[in-house]
């Protein structure tokens, strides 16, 4: 227990320091102050997009290796990238170092997935929800603290933008040190649920015969957990003499599981009925073969590598066969895409809607600071409440898509600055809450520990979608639409997203209505009526 608490403390400390960057609040002003002759169009159309391109390139590698190297090396690599990024801002105020800094900014963004994957790799499955919430709370607190320092230093004339940049560099060094303190991910002991699910899986060599005939491979009827009856009576299975089955029966994955500790009827596993005979027969054959054969060079490394690839593909197929993974991954993709677009262009949006504002830097920074602080509240509430939202995923995503569409359209078309600030805070709270919900919903159903791949793919598609949208809408060589129109288009995408889930949900309800013969026709039981909603998910 003490080790788990220490890991949680280090992980939360890392979340604070990795997001504690006071200079990001005034990065536009810093660049235009210290880098001469850079216009807004050059900054947003030429320099900032480098971050997205470099992030996409590195994400291809990060997606493939994060799970293989067990997360910590990628987190440490992110710390190195962050130090290099902040060094470039302090090194030389020339255009080439500025562009290179955006390359490393993209690298930092790409490697950020390892932080969230690490949460699920080290936490107990029963603590996934709490661990995810605590980690995101630490990130939000770091953002709030960094923004607060920047606002206080500049509004009170304590220091300038250059000093704030040096402070951010110091925090990046601390981030690297804390990342090095993270323990390596060790093989996790399977939970009771995972043991049960593995024990219930039949080897590929077992089949249920239509007509049972006695054979040397027939398994007699005995009490076991492998049945559906209340007495735990096992059906009769016929084992096919297959080498794959023999290897499976001998493996630790199956035969060493003791189901008696789980409180099931019977004190032995089904494999105990035949593994002993298989092993004894195998040993006899092995002794005979060893006496008559010579040593042959082994090709095991090639087989092992092929098995790893096959297992990797099988894990991905299993992960993406789950509706929850697809549903909540789709939400992460669109929400991250919209969030990155809004955050990168929020100052431009305000200047376009309300030009000539008084003290825009102080007010904009204060709103961002307040949003980060208030964003902690819904995450805390979600972390302490009981239960999950798994059953109601489709209705939730339908409502989320439509409500987010409304927020984006209002943000882009309201001319009152205080209304925009209020809507932005509401949006920020909603995004942070649903980001945590989506991470938990995905991580909770993944049993193959491919967190880095799933989270990385979501980020890759989100950034790729953002690049496509901006390439079509924002650049001078293309449509060059106003930022208000671009945000409205993003809102329309959220509207289509919400309508797709709403249509699917309504279609499922209509289908259930027809099958039941009318309004609640055969669903007189309250529990059965709940299925009308639950089954839509």
Automatic annotation (TrEMBL):
PANTHER family: FOLATE TRANSPORTER, IP11787P-RELATED
Transmembrane region(s): 46-66, 73-91, 103-121, 133-156, 162-183, 324-342, 362-384, 396-414, 420-439, 451-469, 489-507
GO terms, molecular function: vitamin transmembrane transporter activity
Gene3D superfamilies: MFS general substrate transporter like domains
Identification of the protein by name: Uncharacterized protein
Alphabetical keyword list: Membrane, Transmembrane, Transmembrane helix
Family: Belongs to the reduced folate carrier (RFC) transporter (TC 2.A.48) family.
Superkingdom classification of source: Eukaryota
InterPro entries assigned to the protein according to its UniProt record, in alphabetical order: Folate_carrier, MFS_trans_sf
């Amino acid at each position: 227990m003490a080790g788990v608490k220490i890991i949680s403390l280090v992980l939360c400390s890392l979340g604070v320091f990795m997001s504690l960057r006071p200079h990001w609040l005034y990065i536009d002003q810093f660049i235009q102050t210290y880098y001469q002759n850079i216009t807004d169009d050059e900054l947003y159309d030429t320099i900032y997009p480098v971050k997205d391109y470099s992030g996409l390139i590195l994400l291809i590698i990060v997606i493939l290796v994060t799970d293989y190297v067990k997360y910590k090396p990628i987190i440490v690599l992110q710390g190195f990238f962050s130090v290099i990024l902040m060094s470039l801002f302090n090194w030389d105020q020339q255009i080439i170092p500025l562009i290179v800094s955006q390359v490393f900014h993209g690298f930092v963004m790409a490697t950020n997935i390892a932080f969230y994957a690490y949460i699920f790799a080290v936490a107990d499955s029963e603590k996934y929800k709490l661990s995810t919430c605590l980690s995101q709370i630490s990130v939000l607190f770091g953002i709030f603290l960094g923004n607060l320092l920047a606002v206080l230093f500049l509004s009170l004339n304590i220091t300038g933008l250059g000093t704030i940049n040096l402070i951010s560099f110091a925090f990046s060094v601390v981030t690297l040190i804390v990342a090095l303190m993270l323990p390596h991910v060790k093989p996790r002991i399977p939970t009771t649920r995972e043991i049960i699910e593995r024990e219930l899986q039949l080897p590929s060599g077992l089949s249920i015969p239509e007509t049972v005939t006695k054979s040397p491979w027939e398994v007699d009827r005995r009490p076991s957990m492998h049945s559906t009856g209340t007495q735990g009576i096992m059906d009769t299975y016929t084992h096919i003499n297959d080498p794959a089955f023999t290897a499976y029966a001998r493996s630790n994955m199956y035969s060493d599981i003791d189901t008696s500790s789980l409180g099931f009827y019977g004190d032995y596993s089904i494999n105990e009925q035949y593994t002993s005979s298989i092993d004894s027969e195998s040993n006899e054959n092995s002794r005979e073969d060893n006496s008559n054969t010579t040593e042959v060079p082994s090709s095991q490394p090639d087989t092992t590598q092929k098995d790893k690839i096959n297992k990797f593909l099988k894990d991905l197929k299993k992960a993406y066969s789950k509706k929850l993974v697809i549903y909540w991954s789709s939400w992460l993709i669109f929400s991250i895409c919209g969030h990155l677009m809004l955050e990168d262009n929020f100052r431009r949006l305000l200047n376009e809607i309300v030009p000539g504002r008084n003290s825009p830097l102080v007010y904009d920074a204060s709103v961002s600071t307040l949003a980060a602080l208030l964003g902690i509240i819904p995450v805390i509430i979600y972390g302490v409440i009981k239960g999950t939202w798994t059953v109601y995923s489709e209705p939730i995503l339908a409502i989320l898509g439509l409500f987010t569409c409304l927020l984006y359209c209002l943000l882009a078309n309201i001319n009152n600055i205080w209304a925009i600030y209020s809507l932005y805070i509401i949006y920020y709270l909603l995004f942070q809450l649903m980001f945590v919900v989506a991470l938990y919903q995905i991580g909770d159903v993944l049993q193959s520990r491919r967190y880095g791949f799933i989270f990385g793919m979501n980020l890759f598609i989100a950034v790729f979608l953002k690049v496509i949208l901006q390439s079509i809408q924002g650049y001078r060589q293309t449509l060059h639409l106003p930022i208000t129109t671009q945000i409205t288009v993003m809102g329309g995408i959220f509207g289509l997203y919400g309508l797709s889930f709403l249509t699917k949900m309504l279609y499922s309800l209509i289908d259930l209505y027809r099958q039941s013969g009318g309004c609640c026709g055969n669903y007189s039981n309250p529990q059965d009526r709940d299925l009308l909603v639950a089954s839509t998910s």
